[in-house]
Amino acid sequence: MINKQVNSLSEAVANIFDGATVMVGGFGEAGSPVELIHSLIDHGVKNLTVVSNNTGSGHVGLAALIENKQVKKMICSFPRTANSMVFPELYRAGNIELELVPQGTLAERIRAGGAGIPAFYTPTSVNTSLAEGKESRNFNNQEFVLEYGIKADFSLVKCDKADRYGNLTYHATARNFGPIMCTAATTTIVQAKNIVNPGDINPEEVVTPGIFVNKVIEVNNPVHESSLVEQEKRYPW
Amino acid sequence: MVTTDKKTGWNRAEMAQKVALDIPNGSYVNLGIGIPEIVADFVPKGREVIYQTENGLLGMGKVPNQKDEDKELVNAGKKCVTAIPGASYFHHADSFTMIRGGHIDICVLGAMQVSQDGDLANWSTGAKDAIPAVGGAMDLVAGVKRIFVITQHVTKQGTPKILKKCTFPITGKQVIERIYTDLAIIDVTKEGLFVKELGPNVTFDYVKERTESVLKQY
Fold first, then answer.
1. Structure confidence by residue, pLDDT tens digits, A33-83
2. Chain B window 79-138: which residues touch A at a Cβ cutoff of 8 Å?
3. In terms of CA atoms, which chain A residue is nearest residue B170?
4. Inside any domain, residue B1
5. I need a surface site. Which of B41, B59, B131, B173 has the fewest CB within 10 A?
6. The domain spanning residue B58 has which CATH number?
7. Whether the complex's predicted ipTM surpasses the cut of 0.95
8. Helices in chain A by DSSP H: which ranges?
9. Number of domains chain B is built from
10. For residue B177, what are the domain limits?
11. Local structure of B35: helix, strand or coil
């Protein structure tokens, strides 16, 4: 029997190793797998390269992972948001690397990584400083920049419903990077608000087919990152 | 010089209203963070416009009451929004397929600087200690059919934002079609910048004094 459900958050992240590349879903707090990230903080591995749109806020979730000195490099499109102070401070001090990628290029690099496409040409960033040093090519009298697909060792994703096969649905704009990150990692680890029986998710409504998912953990009442930030919480608690 | 007892130029809401008037019925529109967000409040009666937000929603509706907020239903500025009946959610690669693939008709963006050639700078001051953050701006200017910029005519320090050449790192080269400021609406053409409309009690010379680029009149 295939059963991707695991029983604890620590079991979910147990295989994540030093130096791994980890994709972390979320657009701000929407879709951020905060419980999985906190479990990764408890797990304690270092020198991670993290691919995520932002760098977290306050001192919880992704910001806490960075603050705990577990992240060597961030690959993201928007490393500052309201209440983000951890990353800016480390970055200004030269203690964390940043690869800044336009948001659509980031998404396409992840999609390509998951789809077996090593590289692609895009019009985004042509004539800007973000295209400096990159190969370019002219198609039909327009310039394009070469960008590479990204693969990860692990993806951490938050979803709404999951079943034991790893079929997933998402909630509203918490979907964001989740479906593409699920495809681009060797091991995809998902926290689901509810784990339901196979068949309870209508096949027409499955967003991520189970083949892209390796582990599912049920987290019924996920925290709201912004509430934790408002309460000035820090992780580890 | 303009007298001080009369209102000079447009306020933010009026600027947004001017942009809204130029958005045709049936358009798919992406609104940037800041002043662009309020454009949605001024769609003229009888027109239907669909708003896309690049974090994965087509059919973005009004800002909800606080009690109805869903922290996972947000816009690109990470503010809570609603979804209209007939809306759809999608992942980021699909969202940027809409944007980069030329499926969005109009994008309204804010600006730090614009140039007379239609270059836009709105992602970084390039300062050494600045944290660069680009988000979706470069994808939007690369892929959306028409780019409108809405901005104050001068900086908080009173210096021009419409320059011969941007001094900040650019977001895109020759991408802007029209600039809406508190003082004027300016078309970006191959022959240069043309003032299309002046704000209330604003003269052409008044705008010219506050613009570094060459400004022309139709």
1. 999 999 999 999 999 999 999 999 999 999 999 999 999 999 999 998 778
2. 83, 89-93, 95-96, 99-100, 129, 131-138
3. A128
4. no
5. B41
6. 3.40.1080.10
7. yes
8. 9-13, 34-43, 61-67, 86-92, 103-115, 178-184, 225-230
9. 1
10. 12-217
11. helix
